[in-house]
C-alpha cells in the first residue's frame, strides 16, 4: 500500500472506495426500482410478452398461414379460441406470431428515433452556432409536417416493407428527441466539470458521451417508452393506405387495420389486436416511469 506523505492517507485505498461507491449507487437504483410495485408489474408483463414472442412457434395451435375455408370470420369458439379472420386463419395464432413483428417494429423504430435525436441533438447543443441553426431549422420543417405524413413520403420513396416502415417511422418521429437532447446539452455545456475535462485533454467525443449525454438519459428513456405504442399505431395507419407492413405478415397494427371493415359483423378482428397493443403500451409505460424515477438523481438520498 502506497501512502501519500503530504496528505497522510493511503492512496491505493481510494480506488476500492470509489468502486464501492459506484456499486452502491447501482444497488440503490435497483433497490428503489424493486420497491415500485407498478414498475415490477410492467416488467413482468414485458417479460411475458417477449417470452410469448420467442416461443410463439411452439405454443400456437395452428400455423398463422393455415386457412380454414369452412370457418371464415367466425367468433371465438373451442376450435378457434379467438376466432378466425376473413380467410379462416386462426386469430390466436396470428396474434401470437404477430407479437414478434409488432414488438420488433415498435422497439426498433422508437430506438432509431431516440438514437437519431440523441446524436443530432448533442451535436446541435454542444457545438452551437451554424450547426445549431441548421439542425433547428431542419427540425422546424419536420415538426411543421405531421409525422405520419413524413412516414408516408419515406415509404413512397423507399417502397413498402417491414424494415422500410421502421425507418419511415423513426425519421418522422426524431425531431422531438433532437430538441429535447439539445436543451439538456445546452443546460450543462458550460458547467465547471466540463471545463475540468477539457483541462485534462478529454476529446470532444468523450466529453459528449461520458459527461453530457448521461444527463439526457432520463427524459430520453421516458420518450423511448412512450413512443413504442405510437409507432405500432402509426404502422396501422400506413397499412390503411396500402403502405407499411402488408399482408400476410401478422403484425398487430396491420391486423387491426385489416379488421376495420368488419367491426360490426366481426368485432373480434379489432378488439383482440387492440387489447394486445394496449397491453404492451401499458406495461412499457409503467415500467419506464418507474425506471425514470429510480434513475432520477433528485430522488437519491
Topology:
Layout: E1 3-4, E2 9-10, H1 14-35, H2 37-54, H3 56-59, H4 91-127, H5 129-144, H6 147-158, H7 162-172, H8 175-188, H9 192-199, H10 204-212, H11 217-240, H12 252-258, H13 268-295
Antiparallel strand pairs: 1-2
Helix pairs in contact: 1-13, 2-4, 2-13, 4-5, 4-7, 4-8, 4-11, 4-13, 5-8, 6-7, 9-10, 11-12, 11-13, 12-13
Care to give the gist of this entry?
The chain is mainly α and 301 residues long. The protein is 70% helix and 1% strand.
Structure write-up:
- By secondary structure, this protein is mainly alpha-helical.
- It has a domain at 99-301: Orthogonal Bundle (MetI-like fold).
- 70% of the residues lie in helices and 1% in strands.
- A two-stranded antiparallel ribbon has the order 1-2.
- α9 packs antiparallel against α10, α11 (217-240) packs parallel to α12 and α12 (252-258) packs antiparallel against α13 (268-295).
- It is globular and about 75 Å long.
- The relative contact order is 0.14.
> Would you tell me the structural class of the helices and strands?
mainly alpha
Shape: globular
SSE string: EEHHHHHHHHHHHHH
What is the CATH topology of the domain at 99-301? MetI-like fold
> What is the CATH architecture descriptor of the domain at 99-301?
Orthogonal Bundle
Largest beta-sheet characterization:
2 strands, antiparallel
Descriptive labels:
301 residues; globular; MetI-like fold
Amino acid at each position: 500500500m502506497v501512502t501519500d506523505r503530504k496528505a497522510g492517507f493511503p492512496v491505493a485505498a481510494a480506488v476500492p472506495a470509489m468502486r464501492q461507491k459506484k456499486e452502491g449507487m447501482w444497488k440503490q437504483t435497483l433497490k428503489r426500482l424493486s420497491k415500485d410495485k407498478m414498475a415490477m408489474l410492467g416488467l413482468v408483463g414485458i417479460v411475458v410478452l417477449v417470452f410469448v414472442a420467442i416461443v410463439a412457434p411452439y405454443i400456437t395451435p395452428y400455423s398463422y398461414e393455415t386457412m380454414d375455408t369452412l370457418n371464415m370470420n367466425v367468433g371465438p369458439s373451442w376450435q378457434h379460441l379467438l376466432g378466425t379472420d376473413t380467410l379462416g386463419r386462426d386469430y390466436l395464432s396470428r396474434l401470437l406470431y404477430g407479437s414478434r413483428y409488432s414488438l420488433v417494429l415498435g422497439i426498433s423504430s422508437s430506438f432509431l428515433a431516440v438514437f437519431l435525436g440523441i446524436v443530432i441533438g448533442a451535436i446541435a447543443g454542444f457545438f452551437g452556432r451554424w450547426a445549431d441553426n441548421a439542425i433547428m431549422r431542419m427540425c422546424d420543417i419536420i415538426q411543421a409536417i405531421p409525422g405520419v405524413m413524413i412516414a408516408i413520403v419515406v415509404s413512397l420513396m423507399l417502397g413498402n416493407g417491414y424494415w422500410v416502415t421502421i425507418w419511415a417511422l423513426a425519421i418522422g418521429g426524431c425531431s422531438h428527441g433532437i430538441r429535447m437532447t439539445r436543451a439538456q446539452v445546452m443546460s450543462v455545456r458550460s458547467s465547471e466539470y466540463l471545463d475540468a475535462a477539457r483541462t485534462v485533454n478529454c476529446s470532444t467525443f468523450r466529453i459528449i458521451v461520458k459527461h453530457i449525454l448521461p444527463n439526457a438519459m432520463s427524459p430520453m428513456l421516458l420518450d423511448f417508452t412512450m413512443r413504442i405504442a405510437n409507432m405500432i399505431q402509426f404502422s396501422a395507419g400506413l397499412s390503411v393506405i396500402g403502405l407499411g407492413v402488408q399482408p400476410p405478415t401478422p403484425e398487430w397494427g396491420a391486423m387491426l387495420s385489416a379488421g376495420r371493415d368488419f367491426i360490426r359483423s366481426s368485432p373480434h378482428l379489432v378488439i383482440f389486436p387492440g387489447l394486445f397493443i394496449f397491453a404492451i403500451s401499458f406495461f412499457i409505460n409503467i415500467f419506464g416511469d418507474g425506471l425514470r424515477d429510480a434513475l432520477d438523481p433528485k430522488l437519491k438520498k
